[in-house]
């Protein structure tokens, strides 16, 4: 005959077995979930979490050949997006101040005279084609000046209200780097003067004359 104490002891053992069995089931379920997510531990869960990083932005720019400046037509290009530290590695201090901080180099401090050879100017940050040397003229300002850009696709013009003036800022479409400003006091045929900073560009001479 089973006593009341024996019944209570059996009930306790049954309760402990049920509780431990449930906990083991949860552990096994958790382990299975981690294996399903592709690995072990917290790292596996983090790896399975969808990334929030944005995909590279594609741009439709106008591309030009280095050897003779031939227009290659519209082309898809990844927009260059870098951190400040990465830009510092890529650019000189002077170029960083102009291109990433919208600064202005000192007049007559850079190679502003029209080159003797034919060629084009590319962005110092991402190599997007910006100006053909055939459109460059001596404005007497001390900064390289052009009466048009090589393509409207490749430059961005925006309103600049800094320093109590209203101007039109010009930046590179390929990387959003500041280049200079455009004014309406240039020569024919456009009447425009794209006043650029030397450090924001690099000249590429044509290899075919």
From TrEMBL:
Q: What is this protein called?
A: Peptide methionine sulfoxide reductase MsrB
> Care to name a GO molecular-function term for this sequence?
peptide-methionine (R)-S-oxide reductase activity
For this chain, the family text in UniProt reads:
Belongs to the MsrB Met sulfoxide reductase family.
A Gene Ontology CC term for this entry? cytoplasm
- Write out the entry's keywords from A to Z: Metal-binding, Oxidoreductase, Zinc
The EC number on file is 1.8.4.12
Per UniProt, the enzyme's principal EC class comes to oxidoreductase
Q: Which Pfam families match?
A: SelR
Which reaction does this chain catalyze?
Answer: L-methionyl-[protein] + [thioredoxin]-disulfide + H2O = L-methionyl-(R)-S-oxide-[protein] + [thioredoxin]-dithiol
Q: Which cofactor(s) are needed, names only?
A: Zn(2+)
Q: Which domain of life is it from?
A: Bacteria
Domain MsrB as annotated: residue spans: 84-206
* UniProt GO BP: protein repair; response to oxidative stress
Q: Which organism is it from?
A: Dyella monticola
Question: Which InterPro entries does UniProt cross-reference here?
Answer: Met_Sox_Rdtase_MsrB, Met_Sox_Rdtase_MsrB_dom, Mss4-like_sf, TAT_signal
């Amino acid at each position: 005959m089973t006593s009341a104490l024996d019944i209570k002891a059996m009930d306790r053992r049954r309760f402990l077995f049920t509780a431990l069995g449930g906990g083991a089931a949860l552990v096994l379920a958790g382990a299975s979930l981690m294996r399903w997510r592709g690995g072990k531990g917290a790292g596996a869960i983090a790896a399975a979490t969808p990334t929030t990083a944005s995909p590279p932005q594609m741009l439709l720019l106008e591309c030009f050949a280095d050897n003779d400046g031939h227009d290659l037509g519209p082309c898809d290009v990844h927009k260059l997006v870098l951190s400040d530290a990465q830009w510092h590695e890529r650019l000189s201090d002077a170029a960083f101040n102009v291109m990433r901080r919208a600064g202005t180099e000192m007049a007559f401090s850079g190679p502003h005279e029209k080159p003797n050879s034919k060629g084009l100017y590319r962005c110092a940050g991402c190599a997007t084609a910006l100006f053909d040397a055939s459109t460059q003229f001596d404005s007497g300002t001390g900064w390289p000046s052009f009466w048009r850009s090589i393509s409207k696709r490749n430059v961005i013009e925006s309103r600049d209200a800094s320093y109590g003036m209203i101007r039109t800022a010009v930046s590179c479409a390929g990387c959003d780097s500041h280049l200079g400003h455009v004014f309406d006091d240039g020569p024919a045929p456009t009447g425009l003067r794209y006043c650029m900073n030397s450090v924001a560009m690099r000249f590429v001479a044509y290899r075919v004359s």
